[in-house]
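Usage

Read records sequentially. Each one opens with the input sequence:
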Amino acid sequence: MHRKLTAILSADVVGYSGLMQADETGTLERLKANRSRVFDPEVATHGGRVFKLLGDGALVEFSSVIAAVNCALAIQEATEKAGTEVAEAKRIRYRIGINLGEVIIEGDDIYGEGVNVAARLQTLAPVGGVALSKMVRDNIEGKMPCVFEDMGEHTVKNIERPVHVFHVRAAGRDETSAQKVETPRKLSICVLPFANMSGDPEQEYFSDGITEDIITDLSKVSALSVIARNSAFAFKGKNVDVLQVAGQLKVSHVLEGSVRKARGRVRITAQLIDGAHNDHIWAERYDRDLNDIFALQDEISEAIVKALKLKLLPEEKKAIEQRGTESVEAYNLFLMARQNYVTGGEGDLRRAEATIRICQRVTEIDPNYADAWALMALGQMIVRFIHGGGGEDGLAAAERALALDANLAEAHAVKARIFAENGRHDEASAEIASG
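and closes with the structure output:
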């Protein structure tokens, strides 16, 4: 078992379950024909190696990132041409994602975060298109005739850091017909950091926390694409032009607002703006008792969804309304801890230790607050493995978080990382897969 830097291509057939349900025999025949006439020959031509077949998809490694991108573009072009003789609804189409990252080699298998990121990128590619990580884009820019479209940073499942995504196509080539017939683009939104109007810089954590929770809530709406926190918070404290933000991040809508918290009361103002025309399509001011903060957050998120004329599925509404705690005191402290971690990052030992202390206080108030246990685990992991400190390694806290919420992605991610730091790579991969 050893590590190396390599390019990983992840490919998946679009709408495979629906294709199989409509015509199982025909779909299998068309997929087999595509693999034998297009996919496998192109992989071989470009020096790739398929190391895992996934029924309707495949994972391929390349020693050259340029070869990986050329292969992906060739597969998509040849697949598009081959599909012209088949009815539109029956065509085989791929989404492809490519990442350049460190992977773990064990026998003929490859795993690790480098593979996981490629798989997540694939889900962000357009139908018939190719999505790249920033590292891939940076390595091929100027070295091959390509056109890139910056899609901004995206938060993806079980990956701690947001992934900066680029779509790519060959220079001189328009969007493929497959991309053009894709279902209408999702509405997209950037939630700008809400301004702290409390007159107290120490309350910044609260306005930032409200912003982050709105981002998290809206991310649970399947019909809406939400810009990741890191990209949105790049505009914090700046006098920004909404149209410029919408154009830069390629979003259809922008949400901005402010928060004032004082003497047990909270006032939140929010306005939703059409990013194409700078029209205000919804605005509201809420004055509530601080104890009503959870219901207020639900109300704001649901009002935004309604203003966008989107349908909120029952399971999405339920997910939004799950706050993790009923204690306003615990929630307030958790926002402090999260802001403390975000401000310091992994390089700040003092802030990591403070994050642990605050989370310990949170879990004393509400022992069932899974998010607090997960954040505590992250702080403990940073102290132990990044700074070589003593104390818990975070595993027990991560397991407590997952016992309370088995679907908590942050807990799965930190648990996988703790396993990896301890050399338990198989368990790390299994943890990522289970999340």
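Summary fields computed downstream for this record:
- The chain has three domains: 2-180, 187-320, 328-434.
- Residues 243 and 264 are 36 Å apart (CA to CA).
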